[in-house]
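Re: the 620-residue chain
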Amino acid sequence: MPNHASRRTLLTVAAVAAVTAAGAASAAVGPARNPGGPSPDDPRPGDRAPGRSPAPRVLPRETMERMSLAELVGQLFVSRAYGHAATEPDSEDAALNQQAFGVRTPAELVARYHLGGIVYFGWAHNTRSPRQIAELSAGLQRAAADSGAGIPLLLSIDQEHGAVARVGRPATLLPGAMALGALALGTGGSTAEARRAARIAGAELAAMGIRHNYAPVADVNVDPANPVIGVRSFGADPQAVAALVAAQVRGYQGAGVAATAKHFPGHGDTGTDSHVGLPLMTHTRARWEELDEPPFRAAVEAGVDVVMTAHIVFPALDPSGDPATLSRPIVTGILRERLGFRGVVVTDALDMAGVRQKYGDDRVPVLALKAGCDQLLNPPDLGLAVRSVLAAVESGELTRARIEESVLRILELKARRGLFDAAARAVEPARAMDAVDAAVGIPAHLAAAGEIADRTTTLLANPVGLLPLDPADRPLLLVTGTDPASPTGTTGPPTAVLARELSALGCRATALPPARAVAAAPGNAAVLVCTYNVPEGESPQRELVTKLLATGVPVVLVAIRNPYDPARLPACAAELATYTWTDVELRAAARVVTGTVRPVGRLPVPVPGRYPLGHGLAYG
């Protein structure tokens, strides 16, 4: 790379800063906004992002026609890259890049394969902090500008919030999908807060240079044992899920970030995790139309930019035995032709077992394109995947016209999200940092996250009126149970967070591990026990709750992930569901326990044998 900045580099640096500034400009969406009133959000605002004047005219078709075949094929791929920096990764990450891709740095990876996008992961060491992410984004965009056709990257991430989040504190962490489903039912079906949450999340991602989020989940979770969706879904009612999906699409895209409805044609009734196996969906076509289709149809009607496919076999929609990602009847026949989707179709990650069981890694990318997919996400062997697509074009199995069809959709998406926009002058890198500081984890966003969370906690049982506890009485409380790792590694542990918040509200709360909790229970006004994905039958969590009940001290069950836990445990003096174990939800639960706020959430899924869909108690 030359020592002086090329014109293309300067334009890209300016574009990154303009994009991050746009995210900052749309960041003030906290309590001052009227969540129920009219919104200026435009889910597909042409070549504009909020807060900017119209972008220079970009002609994706003319741009595409100047590209070589290798550059066109590169645009189809979204890959991982190891390291926190574009050009100077840590030595361990440089070694991982060398092993996986034959290059040392993420910048070299972008240049070598003319990539269309990079996906950020915590395990790939991409997400240390918001400022670092913004710097990585800018460096990757410079690399893209100085290589090949100079097409900007579409940088993407899984930031669903709740159970799946890659960026942690100091970024704002918001309630996840099922918590928002509980809120919507508790407020008479209002989706305003779901839209507000997505707009906050989108503004923060945009400030970090991320213009594509793999959210919202459009799956309708009707299997309590679903190992991969669960609380990532808004709930079990297809119409409620559809309304929330549409709201979040509008929220994200109103902040200038491409939303993704996933996992088409629906992953909510599977007992297998497609990361490790190939799920079989047994719904009839009529059942699919009733249950699985409405959220995806709502997303398309809301103008969603991207739909992600599922690695599931769905015989009623395609009897071939191919996973949906590789199924032309599903991707082209149903998604494109029946639902009329004209945006970008991205595969779920191609390194997942569900898409690799029937065909080799050389065939999967080609078959996905033949099915109608546009973006190929994270193939296990990027070099093999690229060579396979090039060979398929050379052999005539795929035509250049078919490649151009997908590339045009991708370029149009990039133009729509402002990635071709460039200021007329070079911009100092510090400007990108200023945009992060102006948008990410700001007080208005953090306050909004707390307000939203306060309306998600569901009071499931309170038969003897134990709750609310009066903090003025300074009750002695013990908090124990399961302490799962935070989705981002930046919050928790849950029992400590809950105890701290209860103490801050006036109680005298102590967190202890399960091994010490039973002996310490006597003398407390109540024991709060956090449970997490309790399995059927005997388990250490069931044993703990049983022993705590035997002490005679009132037990408050706090299901910190799946609300199905109470059906697998003995009845307690009070039972709550938080749907997420991040700090914002646990602090909200403490406020409900003490009556600082009243419980509002309603179950967005039924708990078999215990509670119906829509169940939720209030204080008298």
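The first helix runs from residue 7 to 25.
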